[in-house]
Amino acid sequence: MATLRRFSSMANVHQKSSDLKSTxxxxxxxxRSVGADDRSTESREDYLVCIFELIEEKGxxxxxNVAESLAVAEPSASAMIKRLAQKGYLKHEKYRGFTLTGTxxxxxxxxxxxxxxxxxxxxSLDLPKHVIQKDVDGLEHHLSEQTFEQLKLLVRLHQD
Length: 160
Hints:
By secondary structure, this protein is mainly α. The protein has a domain at 38-106: Arc Repressor Mutant, subunit A (Orthogonal Bundle), CATH 1.10.10. The chain has helices at residues 2-32, 38-58, 63-70, 74-86, 102-124, 129-139, 145-159; strands spanning 90-93, 97-100. Strands 1-2 form a two-stranded antiparallel sheet.
């Protein structure tokens, strides 16, 4: 009888694993549709969120600000900003900085929201700030939509 229960539990785990696989495939499809490998997608998202946060904070974003915020060299930041502009994520105005396009704003807000939810969740675990920052940076690009939605619900329940 105990063996039968273990089998039943294993079947449930397998079913849940299958559900997660399909969700993760949806996540991978979303990232592939943008046309880049994972590291490129993560980098693009990091730049877009950085630009979003700079604009929110200062009212503008310039290459030097982005480079400083992301701790990268200015030529690297400049090259990525040009690629983002070519792909339609931002509008670059020479000598005036740049702004996010509608597409860039949608992606930046989505990733920014993920960061806020992950930060709130990890704060609820009473983790140190440096651990939270490191874990948010590691997790934000890799959560399936299903997992993110469940975390969002959990955070909201915890805040109420």
